[in-house]
Amino acid sequence: MIVNQSSIILALGLTAAVATPVRRQLPPSTRVQMHSSCSASQKQTLNKALDDMNKLTIHATKRILDKTYEDPVYQTYFGNGESATVVGYYGILTAGKVFFSDVDNKCSQPGWAGHWRGEVAPLETVICPLSFNTTARKPLSALCQDGDRFSQHKTNYFLSSDLMHRLFHVPLINPEERVDHYASNYTEVTALAAADGDKAEHNQDSYMYFALDAYARDDVNPPNGCV
Ligand SMILES: *[C@@H]1O[C@H](CO)[C@@H](O)[C@H](O)[C@H]1NC(C)=O
Ligand SMILES: *[C@@H]1O[C@H](CO)[C@@H](O)[C@H](O)[C@H]1NC(C)=O
């Protein structure tokens, strides 16, 4: 394998070979094991972003359990999509075990912030240097800052929400591969919720936008958040 020191692998679960179907038993919270190729600052950035991703997913779950599918904010992103399904996927996202290792050689492709390694190593997802570029990826602390509106950004604006994207491509997290990309920007995501709740509850960016919105409204800038 070609080792590229500048990027990092997130591997879900144990290092054992993946059998099909992928088992669903997961440890209780997302943990990071850093490979030695990971620099101290990369390690710090990713640890923080994973903590923030956990914060987002846990908060989103709490909000749904508290306010149920009748919550207008829930309906903005998931329409009449089944809330138990949504809670289930958020739960799986927070249950992963991640560890960092050396990498493949695909990060030089323009705009690539990471990629799932595919059949070669189905438990692993690569984190490319673009993920550490502070112009391209913001910390969650930037949410609502200085009048910024998250709805104006793609969900990869925040590294913590972009990590959900990385994890959704790992079969341990999304074993049936039903969660996919049907709508990406805010306008498309909210239109999808209104048109097709079943698709919305299987659309990656719906999870990220709802989690950002719920967190913004409840914790960062109550009561209205920063849509
Ligand atoms: C960081 O990202 C910005 C915006 O995507 C890009 O213009 C810039 O060239 C990147 N910097 C590096 C060092 O890659
Ligand atoms: C969202 O994506 C659609 C389709 O690609 C595009 O037409 C629209 O301009 C985008 N809207 C925003 C706010 O970026």
Automatic annotation (TrEMBL):
SUPFAM superfamilies per UniProt: Metalloproteases ('zincins'), catalytic domain
Signal peptide boundaries: 1-19
Keywords: Signal
Domain annotation Putative peptidase: ranges: 30-227
Signal in keyword set: yes
PANTHER family registered for this protein in UniProt: PROTEIN ZPS1
Name the record gives this protein: Putative peptidase domain-containing protein
